[in-house]
Amino acid sequence: MMHIWVDADACPAAIREILYRAAERKSVSLTLVANQPLQTPPSKLIRSVRVQRGFDVADKYIAEQAKSGDLVITADIPLAAEVIAKGAEAINPRGEHYTTENIRERLALRDMMAELRDAGEVSGGPPPLGPADRQAFANALDRLLTRRLR
Predict the structure, then answer these.
(1) Core-most of 54, 90, 124, 146, by most CB within 10 Å?
(2) Are strands 97-98 and 89-91 parallel, antiparallel or unpaired?
(3) Quick one: CA dihedral 35, 49, 10, 64, positive or negative?
């Protein structure tokens, strides 16, 4: 049975709300992993796990727990690559579906952007999550769940 893992430290509240509704609607277990306490709705399908503070602690927990067939929600491209290698699927909070076909390109782009930021060529990060991003995420999640839970 599929399990949804959420890298919740950086996951926007609006995306978590979409996930809560989807977990209940599709009867899928959902676990949010963060280094801070999270409020989740009362549900036997939804839980949160609090990990210790530290660099990539939540990512490491998710990478250890995720199994083939699971779904991971993360904007962290190295985490996405790791779970994809285990046979899980990954989408980011903007609805981009990471796959074995595109993850190497995403890793290379991430590394290039890090180099440009380190050199002072680029500053800032992605724009704030907007309504179109939330809709794209909801659509991607629905497509994936519909395909996987037939």
Answers:
(1) 90
(2) antiparallel
(3) positive
Provide CB contacts within 8 A for 34, sequence distance 6+: 8, 9, 48, 49, 50, 51, 58
| Paired tokens of 4 | 């949804």
Euclidean distance between CA atoms 3 and 28, whole angstroms: 6
Beta bridge partners of 7: 33
Token pair belonging to 29: 């277990």
pLDDT tens-place string over residues 132-143: 999 999 999 999
The answer to whether the beta carbons of residues 59 and 72 sit under 8 Å apart is no
**CA–CA separation, 8 and 132 (whole Å):** 20
- The token pair at 149 is 């839970």
C-beta atoms surrounding 148 within 10 Å: 14
- What's the helix, strand, coil split of the chain in %, to 5? 45, 15, 40
Q: Distance (Å, rounded) from C-alpha 78 to C-alpha 111? A: 10
CA 97, 136, 21, 65: dihedral to nearest 10 degrees?
20
Q: What is the pLDDT of residues 85-96, one digit of tens each?
A: 999 999 999 999
